[in-house]
Amino acid sequence: MISKCLAIAFLAIASMTGAAAAQTATNQAASTTSATTHKEGEWRASKLAGVDVYNEANEKIGDIHDVILDRSGKVANVILGVGGVLGLGEHYVAVAFDKLKWVDQPVTSTTSSTTSAPANAPATTPAPDSTTRTTTGAATTTTTTTTTSASTRWYPDHAVYNATKDELKAMPEFKY
């Protein structure tokens, strides 16, 4: 009689434990919505620090020094470093994240070169497989260039802010 009661108690406990474990696994799967891969348009905040900032005239006016989040995890401000040399004497200003225009393509140069190569300069020819071949006499050097898309870099190429460097330096300094 005691062995029957122990067997029934053991089966009852085993069935409750299995149901509880299954319920816990289901609740955990439903409550966690973690990302498993990078999605286009998502950037790593650690990679935004150091991104150059240009104005509408393609003049570099500073770079991103820091990203400030609010309590909900949304970006409140971006701290721009303006002026200075090697981080010394930089003036930090806070600008709203939505005031920056993010660009994935490199900055286009507005200057053009009209110099011609000397007669003894090596000839460079682009190859169809994104390599550049330089020929000097009998020797040929092949340089492979790879392009990285913004979706695999996890950060934009640069940002554009509608201000001059002097206007940014005149803004109140951000204090940490």
What does this structure look like?
The protein contains four helices and nine strands, in the order ααββββββββαβα. By secondary structure, it is of the alpha+beta class. Keywords: Signal. InterPro entries: PRC-brl_dom, PRC_barrel-like_sf. Residues 1-21 form the signal peptide.
Distance between the termini: 75 Å
Strand content: 25-35%
- CATH fold descriptor of the domain at 43-105 and 157-175: SH3 type barrels
Name of the CATH homologous superfamily of the domain at 43-105 and 157-175: PRC-barrel domain
CATH architecture of the domain at 43-105 and 157-175: Roll
Largest sheet: 6 strands, mixed
Low-confidence sequence ranges: 112-136, 140-151
Main β-sheet, spatial strand arrangement:
4-3-2-1-9-5
Helix content: 25-40%
Order of helices and strands: HHEEEEEEEEHEH
Separate helix tally? 4
Total count of strands: 9
What is the SS-derived class? alpha+beta
Tell me the name of the CATH class of the domain at 43-105 and 157-175.
Mainly Beta
Evaluate the radius of gyration: 29 Å
| Shape annotation | elongated
Average pLDDT confidence is 73
